[in-house]
Amino acid sequence: MKNDKHPVVAITGGIGSGKSYVCRLLEQRGIRIYDCDSGAKRLMRSSAQLQERLTRLIGHDTYIDGHLNKAAVASFMMQSDDNVKAVNAIVHPAVADDFFQSDYTWMETAILYDCGFDRYADIVIAVVAPQETRISRIMKRDGISRAKALEWIAKQMDQQEVSRRADHIIINDGTHDLPSQIDRILTLIKE
Fold it and tell me: Mean pLDDT throughout 28-49?
């Protein structure tokens, strides 16, 4: 917990669940949310310490003229699960430190449990959607095939497991009323 007055609230959900959309609705209500994915990208671009550690791990082509070489990082990570773990062991703690040095008390991350950030959260909200809805959203958003969308979904923690571990669930299937679900959860959090 960051402090005694404000609990840390984490919003999570698999790819295509619509958690970013839910976060935008929350932001319209004045809630500021730290986006862990954007934070990681920003830190990989701007933190000299992170750049040095990633370069030592991956190689001298990790940064070209000061810019992150995403292809080199992706190639390194695709070689093995150990490589993924090694990169994450550098990036995730830096993101956690950045969050705790900020004045945010809400965070958004798709990989809350995978990266261990659930240990920082006092309250977890999972955004869920039916698999077909998720597949459709991913295909439309990223211009990819159904097979690729399914591959991306399969790489993340099962939605049922994420829901089981969460304190609150928001169903973002296009039929359940999002504002009323958000109102209910905000009321419970304030209590």
Answer: 94
pTM greater than 0.70: yes
User: What are the distances in angstroms from CA 59 to CA 47, 62, 73?
Assistant: 17, 6, 9
What ranges in 11-59 are assigned the alpha helix state H? 19-28, 36-46, 48-58
Place 78 in a pLDDT band, splitting at 50, 70 and 90. confident
Indicate the pairing of strand 9-12 with strand 123-128: parallel
Residue 19 is encoded by which pair of tokens? 């958690």
Spatial distance between the Cα atoms of 185 and 172, rounded to a whole number of angstroms: 14
Residue 81, token pair as written in the block: 């699960």
Provide the token pair at 100. Answer: 């705790």
Half-sphere exposure of 40 (CA within 13 A, CB side): 18
